[in-house]
Amino acid sequence: MTGRKARLGVLLSGRGSNFLAIASAIAEGSLTGCEIAVVISNIADAPGLRAAAELDLPAAAQVSRGVARESHDLAMVQLLQQHGVDYVILAGYLRVLTPAFLQAFPQRVLNIHPALLPSFPGLHAQKQALDYGAKVAGCTVHFVDEEVDHGMIIVQRTVGILDSDDEISLSARIIAEEHEAYPEAIRRVLSGEYEIRGRRYVRRSGSSGPVQS
Predict the structure, then answer these.
(1) Residue range 192-202, pLDDT digits in tens
(2) Which residues are catalytic?
(3) Rounded to the nearest 5°, which phi and psi values hold at 33?
């Protein structure tokens, strides 16, 4: 991708607050070397699609309801490839991707989860943390693999849990950290200044590209 910007394909199912944080970071110049090529939702009326249109970004719905998972993911891959996407950014995309999708973008699909993985994967992570009595929560940006909330970790940010917290207040503080963590994770991946050691993402300097295991 030397000589051109990396093209990001953003997938979302809702309002897309992390998508907007990434778009803002690009516009402000704190996230460079990339551009948003397309925003796609599996929900036809997702607010994130309207937000993308307001930013004059290409936006499309690829509705998943009533479509076999494999067929839907194949259509998604084709749409992303039509837009020349290099990296897929999951920003509140509420579907588990098939192996065929991941094979089309190896080590190039990123996700953010509102917990410090491997703790509290899956839905309602903030409630899980509160119910468990955890004292620290946070968010994790990771590469996506075939297991849910399991792939190699790129960035984590922590949030202390207050005695007065409920799910709403804890979620609000976590999402503020998410909006910083996701652009940072994309920045790190695009820099190529890392290597993969087993499951570990290890930062290094002076690299011209990612080192694959």
Answers:
(1) 999 989 889 99
(2) 113
(3) 80, 10
